[in-house]
Amino acid sequence: MQVRHRLAHHVVDEHERAGTVRRGLDGALEPLRERLAASIEPDGQVADRAAPSLAAARAKKREVESDLKRRLTQMLGRYADLLQGQYYTEREGRYVLPVRSDAHLPVEGIVLGSSSSGGTLFVEPRELSELGNRLRLAEAEAAREEARVLGLLSTQVGELADPCEEAFFACIVADLCRAAARWAAETHSVVVELDAEPVLDLKRSRHPLLLLAEGEVIANDIRLPEHGALIISGPNAGGKTVALKTLGLVAWMARAGLPVPVDAESRLGFFEPVLCDIGDEQSIARSLSTFSAHVQSLARIVSAAGPSALVLLDEVAAGTDPEEGAALAAAVLEALVERGASVAVTTHYERLKELAAEHPRFENASVGFDFESMAPTFRLLLGAAGASSALAVAARHGLSEQILRRAHALLPQHAVDREHMLREIGGERAALERLRAEAELDRTRQRELIAELEAERHAFRQQAAREADREVAELRASVRSARKELETIRKELRKGGENRAELRELERGVSRIAAQVAIGSPLVARDDPPPRAADGPERAIALRVGQTVRHRTLGTQGELLELVDTDTARVLLGQMKLTVKVSELVVLGGGSAKSSVNTKRKPRSATSPKPLAQAHRSQDNTLDLRGERAEAAETLVDAFIDRMLGGGEPVGFVLHGHGTGALKALVREQLGRSSYIEHSRPAEPGEGGDAFTVFWLRD
Predict the structure, then answer these.
(1) DSSP type of residue 315
(2) 395 FRET partner, CA 20 to 30 A, in 133, 216, 495, 506?
(3) Residue 443 class from Cβ within 10 Å (0-12 exposed, 13-18 middle, 19+ buried)?
(4) Got the DSSP string for 87-153?
(5) Could you tell me the pTM of the whole model?
(6) H or E element at residue 560
(7) Per-residue pLDDT reduced to its tens digit, 267-277
């Protein structure tokens, strides 16, 4: 009855607390929540809609910034011959142009930095200084307005500190519930509805700490007689203490409202208090031996035990004369049961095993021992006493056979007979348990095999994908190396060399390797269908420079750049220039000659920049560097540029975030000095804002 009242008061208290939080949320906190949601963006930034003055300040800032960028774009064309590239960037919060260090004097302005090599000076043109100052002032005004808005919001939160605190603790309770749910899912634990009576009947219970160790955990049924005692016997190191601790931990977890590692059919009451004497508390300082320390604990436990108490005793009354210790243990258990406590004890005393066989409120249980393998089974068997098997355990731990034979001869006959009987019973129970386990294993084996097969299949696919990626990377590296060698030979030829045969052979080698990593090659992802040729019939007509052609083997189309000789031609397939056989090319409809044989395209004039492609950000053309270190970021940017070149993408985005600004500056400087980059700049607000840098690749 006392437990019922305590549970009822607990439920009422929690209900009232939840009602207080709910009333706070419905009353004062809901308008505050709406105000915060309207003022703060999901990423934590203050929204323009938080205040009209903030929106106006930011609009003015954007207007000045737009004017400044427009002027910078005009200067890119005016100073094209003096710049390292067609882009502008930021230094110390000011917009600057990348001026060559040998030509900075014609660009009047303030030098705000230089590149690591010293070849580029970052200059703020003098004619932009006034706009730059206006931009800094507009930024300062926007920052002041943002701080003012945050101050007002903080004041409103402070005025509602008590409801906010209630909501905060409600969140803590929710977090605790989530943690309990995760524990239940990971350990297959369940929430057991507490009985009003102090009953404990656990089905397939597992020790909670052993579950966290991720080893094999034996599940056991444990049942305590109501207001009685469970006597657990069996060999040392067989799991008696583990069963005892499982009872205590499950009882405490249920008291705390946590899911417990048992089956749902289990029954569990609310025990108050839970009293334990487990382990050795001997103390030289307090003049306590093992036995005297246990006796002191027993005295405290007996005085505190009552009808709703759970008492757990490990090796009760051990450490003294066996006859006297057994008598004392029996008397203590009878006293505890008379007080109405539920008791579980571990013991090697035969007198306690006999007491459990005779007394209606006592029950035997034992942990198993496999005498064939000479190892414990850790399974708890209810209803039968267990042999201590001291000699068998001693043999398992290395005691000599001569000593064990002598010890066996010294045993009285009744002890030998009892040990033999208990061993036979234990063997029969073990055989039945093995049969049950085998039947259970047969029922689950098929599901396990299917799961293993699926896992192996998944692992094989992943390994195959990794090997393919590695081979592609090696081939691309070979292509880059061959290109460098080809460029070296070309430079020698321009100086008057005669090694044209070697040049042609090297070009063919590059083409062979490049064909293996080109679009449509065997290394293309298996799930991607090969590119289709342009609609229309293939026409076997004479080849002319500028025609649109398709490569028969690769299945890709491109442009004919040059007829090297009657059997060989150079074509542009995607971003790759290949030397191929004329017989492998087919002219497609719509191709038109641009020039006669051996006519090459003229390079673009440096003074007439090509219009840049539209910048549209997607997952495929974006590199996320947030959280990366500087050294790793440089490597990732180089690899990203290589991938973009190989994929034919004209525009790329690098997401570096804001942070301290160091990573942003590093990325923009690296992109600015790359020979593969036509132009780079901070992303516009519609493209992601200053957290991104956008760049265009050279043709």
Answers:
(1) S
(2) 216
(3) exposed
(4) --EEETTEEEEEEETTS-TTS-EEEEEE-TTSSEEEEEEGGGHHHHHHHHHHHHHHHHHHHHHHHHH
(5) 0.43
(6) strand 557-563
(7) 988 888 899 88
